[in-house]
């Protein structure tokens, strides 16, 4: 029950009026970010990160993680009311959420979405509370080869879990690694791939990449459609909320199943988006009303929302315990930790218990605050969506430019952001996944260090990745995931079924 | 936006191939530069190019496969990458944005942003000046207060701010 004590300590850190205030600010900002097109959890946090450099790290991460929770909640609002997913993970919410809203049951859909988000997050946080100290203690024994194999596992999981072409996933990931290698090599002091440009000395900052790829790229994609929002009216009165709450316990099985799927996909870096689709699919198969999915079933809202929020939350578990983020937003938060001088990983639990447990406690409080805020302020947030795109778009562009500039106070970064923006647009349209690129850019240096140190220890012998049972089993798992697209093809062929075409058409 | 049914500007096949070629080039540059630095085993361990060299190689292999897959797309399955009307919209946003970033250099971010938001609203949103003047000024005044006064994060400033003694 050490965890409970530590958690109570954490609550005493998080429960100061200042931190509670930041929590509310974070949630409200987060919901706005989640509702607006072009701004999402990852780039929203990336833009606001430089503003927190002067704050104390615990307060800063509480605010930033609350932005993340807010964005997770906010995505549901646009999906249900406008049939426009504000975030990729709320795409699956539109399937049943929007039909519900069209039937005039927007309130029910919203309540169901928010409540199941909350339940999903709660499961995720409980998992973090009880599992992360165990993993952290276990990870204390990790040496460079173990770390490298964990990185390998992370990146192979992307290949195995992605729906699109595995080659495109690998290409986008390797591009991240290559960009991370640009600049001064800290071990040898040599310049890598700078080609004489002094601007490239410090390398590519992933924050700029995130702002460009997700922010500008998203705006360009949205503008293509020549946006016009036509939304359902949003009103949430307490009666509807309570009625929906009475209905929700019926779906406890769906909820539980989705939460498990979500947690699993969050820890293994599959991320919230595939988790939401997967649990929607499973719920459809398992439910008695499976055939009616897509016509406006509350269950069809519960499943993806629970999973998305559970995945989004549990993505922080590997980030905190191993220093390996499970999602782009977790990657940005990890970048923040590094900037504040905190080394994520097992030592963090031993050295900065106040910080870790303050953060975990704030996850409980933040999600409760989030639920209250979204339930009470839906009309307000829906009003933001009614602001025409011709006003919202340039303002978001300006915010992105300011965000990119403030990272290093450099205009070169703003230009870089534009380049990344165009890249993000083309990548999205050709089904090159962006998350592996961002994660590789964040982890590139650390993965390389782990690789170099392992190679030094073994004098260049790759067999060090099988030198003991721990590192061996992680590596095996990684390779299994890497070749999963091939393996599943083979399995399908064995079963005599027609093998589905791999790759994105 | 009425012409969204119009002809394709670029097909997916062309873009897939172009992208694969770009990646191929990128992989080649990465491997070549890493090889130049030394991608072997030095006296004190792996050289600087050791890790990126293999990254470059993997990019080359995968982009070669992607290139092959791109060429293999049959005409029937070749979809539209972007329609002309869409491309026009995207360029209508992207070109002013690039000009805007250029303007930041000598006008400062606040003045440039005011012009950018106003132009965007006027040009793409067809708003009257009674709308775009207050919005663009108000938004930037808010940014100015937030960054320069409240958070004390200095952003690029130009001649206008200098005239008022803010620097």
Model description:
The complex is a heterodimer of chains A (505) and B (167). By secondary structure, chain A is mostly helical. Helix content of chain A is 73%, strand content 1%. Chain A is built from 22 helices and 2 strands. A two-stranded antiparallel ribbon of chain A has the order 1-2. Chain A is globular. By secondary structure, chain B is mainly alpha-helical. Chain B contains 6 helices and 4 strands, in the order βαββαβαααα. A two-stranded antiparallel sheet of chain B has the order 1-4. Chain B has a two-stranded antiparallel sheet with strand order 2-3. In chain B, a hairpin with a 2-residue loop joins strand 2 and strand 3. The model of chain B has no long low-confidence stretch (mean pLDDT 86).
Radius of gyration of chain B (Å): 24 Å
Helix-strand pattern of chain B:
EHEEHEHHHH
Mean pLDDT of chain A: 84
| Range of helix content of chain A | over 70%
- Portion in helices of chain B: 55-70%
Could you say which structural class the secondary elements and strand pairing of chain B correspond to?
A: mainly alpha
What can be said about the biggest beta sheet of chain B?
Answer: 2 strands, antiparallel
Helix and strand run of chain A: HHHHHHHHEEHHHHHHHHHHHHHH
Average pLDDT rating of chain B:
86
**Structural class given helices, strands, pairing of chain A?**
mainly alpha
Query: Any low-confidence stretches of chain B, pLDDT <50, length ≥5?
Result: none
The number of distinct β-strands of chain B equals: 4
> What's the shape of chain A?
globular
Largest beta sheet of chain A, briefly?
Answer: 2 strands, antiparallel
User: Can you count the helices of chain B?
Assistant: 6
Biggest interface reads: A-B, 59 and 67 residues
Question: How would you concisely characterize the structure shown here?
Answer:
The complex is a heterodimer of chains A (505) and B (167). Chain A is an all-alpha fold and 505 residues long. Chain A has 22 helices and two strands.
């Amino acid at each position: 029950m050490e965890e409970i004590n530590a958690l109570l300590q954490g609550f005493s850190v998080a429960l100061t009026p200042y931190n509670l205030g930041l929590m509310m600010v974070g949630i409200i900002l987060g919901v706005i970010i989640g509702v607006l097109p072009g701004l999402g959890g990852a780039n929203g946090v990336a833009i606001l990160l430089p503003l927190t450099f002067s704050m104390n790290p615990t307060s800063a991460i509480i605010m930033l993680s609350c932005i993340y929770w807010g964005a997770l909640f906010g995505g549901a609002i646009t999906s249900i009311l406008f049939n426009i997913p504000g975030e990729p993970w709320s795409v699956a919410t539109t399937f049943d959420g929007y039909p519900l809203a069209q039937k005039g049951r927007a309130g029910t859909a919203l309540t169901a979405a928010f409540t199941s988000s909350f339940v999903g997050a709660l499961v995720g946080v409980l998992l973090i509370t009880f599992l992360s100290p165990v993993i952290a203690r276990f990870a204390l024994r990790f040496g460079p080869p173990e770390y490298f194999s964990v990185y390998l596992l992370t990146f192979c999981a992307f290949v195995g879990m992605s729906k699109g072409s595995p080659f495109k996933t690998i290409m986008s990931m390797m591009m991240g690694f290559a960009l991370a290698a640009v600049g001064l090599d800290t071990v040898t002091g040599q310049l890598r791939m700078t080609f004489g440009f002094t601007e490239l000395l410090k390398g590519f900052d992933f924050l700029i990449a995130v702002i460009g790829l997700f922010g500008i790229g998203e705006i360009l994609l949205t503008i293509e459609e020549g946006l016009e929002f036509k939304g359902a009216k949003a009103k949430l009165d307490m009666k509807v909320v309570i009625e929906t709450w009475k209905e929700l316990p019926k779906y406890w099985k769906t909820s539980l199943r989705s939460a498990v799927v979500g947690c699993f996909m969050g820890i293994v870096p599959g991320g919230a988006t595939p988790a939401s689709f997967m649990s929607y699919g499973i719920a459809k198969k398992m439910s008695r009303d499976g055939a009616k999915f897509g016509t406006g079933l509350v269950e069809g809202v519960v499943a993806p929302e629970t999973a998305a929020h559970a995945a989004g939350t549990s993505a922080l578990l590997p980030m905190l315990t191993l220093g390996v983020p499970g999602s782009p937003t977790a990657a940005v938060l990890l970048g923040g930790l590094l900037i504040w001088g905190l080394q994520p990983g097992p030592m963090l639990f031993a050295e900065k218990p106040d910080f870790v447990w303050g953060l975990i406690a704030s996850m409980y409080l933040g999600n409760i605050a989030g639920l209250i805020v979204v339930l009470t302020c839906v009309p307000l947030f829906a009003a933001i969506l009614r602001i025409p795109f011709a006003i919202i778009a340039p303002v978001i562009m300006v915010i992105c430019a300011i965000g990119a500039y403030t990272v290093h106070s450099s205009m070169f970064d703003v230009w870089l952001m534009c380049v990344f923006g165009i890249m993000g647009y083309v990548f999205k349209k050709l089904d090159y996944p962006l998350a592996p690129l961002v994660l590789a850019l964040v982890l590139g240096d650390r993965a390389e260090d782990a690789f170099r140190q392992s190679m030094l220890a073994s004098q260049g012998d790759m067999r060090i990745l099988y030198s003991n049972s721990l590192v061996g089993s992680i590596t095996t798992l990684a390779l299994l995931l890497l070749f999963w697209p091939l393996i599943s093809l083979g399995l399908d062929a064995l079963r005599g079924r027609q093998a589905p075409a791999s790759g994105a058409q | 936006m009425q012409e969204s049914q119009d002809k394709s500007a670029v097909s997916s096949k062309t873009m897939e191939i172009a992208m694969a070629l770009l990646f191929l080039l990128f992989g080649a540059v990465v491997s070549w530069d890493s090889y130049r630095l030394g991608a072997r085993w030095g006296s004190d361990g792996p050289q600087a190019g050791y890790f990126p060299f293999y990254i470059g190689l993997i990019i080359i292999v995968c982009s070669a496969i992607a290139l092959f897959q791109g060429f293999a797309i049959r005409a029937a399955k070749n979809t539209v990458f972007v329609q002309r009307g869409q491309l026009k919209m995207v360029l209508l946003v992207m070109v002013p944005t690039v000009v805007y970033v250029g303007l930041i250099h000598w006008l400062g971010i606040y003045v440039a942003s005011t012009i950018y938001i106003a132009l965007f609203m006027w040009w793409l949103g067809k708003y009257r000046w009674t709308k775009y003047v207050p919005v663009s000024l108000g938004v930037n005044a808010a940014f100015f207060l937030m960054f320069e006064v409240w958070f004390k994060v200095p952003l690029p400033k130009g001649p206008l701010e200098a005239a008022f003694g803010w620097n």
